[in-house]
């Protein structure tokens, strides 16, 4: 059973801009004076509040908010853009075509994923898990079956091709979907409003390095698609505001972004296998940016 909670701040314009998810009852009580506490009480959810349509948790919201905070550490697995269901991508990206057929590619992703990720591991996917409802490949149910086979507690930053309802991802075995900016500071999660649901990102500190995880690469030299200029500009402003050291991103697949602060976690760059964050930072991040001890 999954549960979506929509809690409004009492105004349509989200004037507070910041939403806090925590497990200190006194803290949340003070921070949520105008929230719909009665609705949460009916579900025995007393100490975790989420703002209108900004974020959705599966099942026990309090537990998953705490787990999400605990998961942000060098042991976290990261990956991006498996894009289940994209026949066009399979036909046009040599690293994918090399698998022979799309079913072999998808099964190989599942096998590779489960070879490194255990049930209790955390995985952050930086978007484009599916291809536009997966209707160009097979039925939605077929893609869901692949998704449900993947180990771990899975968190998704919504990418531009992740257009299904949030409930679809929960039904497919995902634990949460991040659609708006999430800032982790002082062991509290702060949610910001944003111009579109494709501005999701996670900003946090890993062993002294300030990292922004996002679907889009912030500093692409070549603007290949003008549809996402608003999202990229918004994310660049956050990157500067929070003084991030580098951007771990998806979206670009096999293409390189010629900027020292942008590093791709796309599956084409990681042998179609999730990679542990400490290894990624030590092996992939430029030496003059950050290393994990």
Q: Given the C-alpha coordinates, what overall shape results?
A: globular
Distance between the termini: 40 Å
Average pLDDT number: 76
Q: What's the helix count?
A: 10
- H/E topology pattern: EHHEHEHHHEHEHEEEEEHEEEH
Strand-residue proportion: 15-25%
Could you please say which CATH topology applies here? Purple Acid Phosphatase, chain A, domain 2
Q: Which class best fits the helix and strand makeup?
A: alpha/beta
The total number of structural domains is: 1
Radius of gyration: 19 Å
The CATH H-level superfamily is Metallo-dependent phosphatases
CATH architectural group:
4-Layer Sandwich
Helicity, as a percent range: 25-40%
CATH class category name: Alpha Beta
Low-confidence stretches: 1-61
Largest sheet, if any?
7 strands, mixed
The total of beta strands comes to 13
Kindly describe this structure.
This protein has 10 helices and 13 strands. It is globular, with a radius of gyration of 19 Å. Strand 5, helix 8 (166-171) and strand 6 form a beta-alpha-beta unit. Residues 1-61 have low confidence and may be disordered. The chain is 28% helix and 18% strand. It has a single domain, classed as Purple Acid Phosphatase, chain A, domain 2, CATH 3.60.21.10. The protein has helices spanning 25-31, 37-41, 61-71, 87-92, 94-97, 102-116, 140-148, 166-171, 229-241, 277-283, and strands at 18-21, 55-57, 77-79, 122-125, 153-157, 176-178, 181-185, 188-192, 201-206, 209-214, 246-249, 262-264, 275-276. The longest helix has 15 residues, at 102-116. The chain is an alpha/beta fold and 293 residues long.
